[in-house]
């Protein structure tokens, strides 16, 4: 027998022995896990340019922090430590661009998507993702149409505007009653898209049943750079309560214009106010922000994990701990938990795992997740008030840090 042939046979025998030993665990080699061949691709989709860019960039920040933490902690254990490969997309503040980005993520082989902040964009992107059986975890998007179409791929972590509006009205009624009912009239100012229009519609329909008179409902465009005429109208009607429902830039400009024109209602009571629950707004315009109440997405202020994340974000240059940040942070962890349990990168398996989710490691005031028709049933907003340069939870009592100051007298 020639030497090369003998060496070849010896190599084959040794290889077979090594394979058998590895399969039995005799050599301590790790078991080969399906899906370990490459990173796990997850689409992170937000409007990081255009009118909604400030919020979109904060959304991306929260998602990125979570991805980095999960990867640093060993990735998805059930997939052999597969790392999350974030595929970032920019919806450019436009629903049609969001749809185009979903198509790119599908072509890139993403197993799921997290996003896409604005209701109108989420409505479009969830529908586009459904065509490809692509799981889509909705981070903010409060319009309830998003989860009312029977899409099996759509899972909204936070509450929709029906729940938020109902809570807002109930808490306003309670505060007003306890204060001796000083507020009787309400003016609503909202942005023109699905979020603002839907929220204003619900408030307009339901507030009269609680004894409030709606004196006007005014819609404005995105972007709007001048609120002088709207505030002049407000000044003439002199409502007891002003309810804004709009995005950051317009919200900040509206209340600053009110301050400049000397309009001081008994309460600025925001429902999903784009700046009212923002530490950036509080820092840049403390006199304007002081006393504002907002019903919005918020974390449990008594949870140490939330406080730790806030410190981490605020240690970064020019960053603020906003609902965009922590909702996306939590959504990525929710999705990672589903993939861990699915033990697969297959979209169908991930959707099944999300549908059966009981994820309880959230620092939101939600309790364990439970999705019914794509909506997390425990999700609820909190009521915050800006006082002495900080944002404090004032209702419900379970999470409250202090009592509300209502009506607002200009002193905290």
Summarize the structure.
This protein is of the alpha/beta class.
- Approximate strand percentage: 15-25%
Low-confidence stretches: 1-37
Distance between the termini: 97 Å
**Please, what is the average pLDDT?**
92
Query: Would you count the extended β strands for me?
Result: 14
Order of helices and strands: HEHEHEHEEHEHEHEHEHHEHHHEEEE
Question: Into which percent range does the helicity of residues fall?
Answer: 40-55%
Topology:
Elements lengths: L2 H22 L15 E7 L6 H20 L11 E7 L4 H13 L4 E4 L3 H12 L5 E3 L15 E3 L4 H18 L6 E7 L2 H13 L6 E8 L7 H10 L3 E5 L2 H13 L6 E5 L7 H6 L1 H4 L3 E4 L7 H11 L8 H20 L4 H9 L15 E2 L2 E2 L5 E6 L2 E6 L17
Parallel strand pairs: 1-2, 1-3, 3-4, 4-5, 6-7, 6-8, 8-9, 9-10
Antiparallel strand pairs: 10-13, 11-12, 13-14
Helix pairs in contact: 2-12, 3-4, 5-6, 12-13
């Amino acid at each position: 027998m020639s030497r090369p042939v003998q060496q070849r046979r010896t190599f084959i025998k040794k290889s077979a022995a090594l394979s058998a030993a590895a399969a039995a665990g005799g050599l301590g080699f790790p078991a080969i896990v399906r899906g370990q061949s490459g990173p796990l691709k997850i689409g992170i989709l937000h409007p990081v340019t255009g009118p909604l860019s400030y919020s979109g960039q904060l959304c991306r920040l929260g998602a990125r922090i979570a991805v980095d933490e999960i990867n640093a902690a060993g990735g998805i254990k059930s997939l052999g430590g597969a790392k999350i490969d974030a595929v970032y997309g920019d919806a450019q503040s436009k629903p049609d661009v969001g749809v185009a980005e979903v198509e790119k993520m599908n072509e890139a082989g993403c197993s799921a998507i997290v996003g896409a902040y604005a209701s109108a964009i989420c409505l479009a992107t969830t529908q586009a993702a459904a065509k490809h059986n692509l799981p889509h975890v909705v981070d903010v998007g409060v319009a309830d149409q998003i989860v009312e179409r029977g899409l099996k791929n759509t899972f909204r972590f936070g509450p929709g505007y029906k729940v938020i509006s109902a809570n807002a009205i109930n808490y306003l009624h309670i505060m007003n009653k306890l204060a001796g009912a000083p507020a009787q009239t309400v003016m609503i100012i909202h942005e023109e898209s699905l979020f603002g229009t839907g929220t204003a519609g619900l408030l307009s329909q339901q507030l009269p049943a609680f004894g409030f008179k709606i004196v006007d409902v005014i819609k404005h465009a995105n972007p709007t750079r001048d609120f002088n005429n709207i505030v002049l109208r407000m000044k003439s009607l002199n409502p007891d309560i002003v309810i804004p429902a709009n995005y950051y830039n317009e919200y900040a400009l509206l209340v600053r214009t009110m301050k400049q024109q000397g309009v001081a209602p008994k309460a600025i009571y925001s429902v999903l106010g784009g700046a009212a629950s923002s530490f950036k707004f509080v820092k840049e315009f403390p006199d304007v922000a002081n006393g504002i109440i907002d019903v919005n997405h918020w974390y449990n202020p008594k949870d140490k994990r939330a406080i730790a994340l806030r410190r981490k974000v605020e240690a970064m240059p020019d960053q603020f701990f906003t609902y965009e940040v922590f909702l996306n942070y939590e959504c990525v962890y929710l999705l990672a938990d589903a993939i861990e349990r699915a033990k697969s990168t297959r979209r169908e398996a991930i959707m099944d795992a999300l549908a059966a989710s009981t994820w309880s490691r959230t620092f939101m005031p939600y309790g364990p997740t439970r999705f019914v028709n794509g909506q997390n049933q425990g999700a609820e907003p909190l009521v915050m008030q800006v006082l002495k340069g900080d944002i404090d939870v004032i209702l419900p009592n379970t999470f409250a840090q202090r009592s509300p100051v209502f009506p607002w007298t200009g002193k905290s």
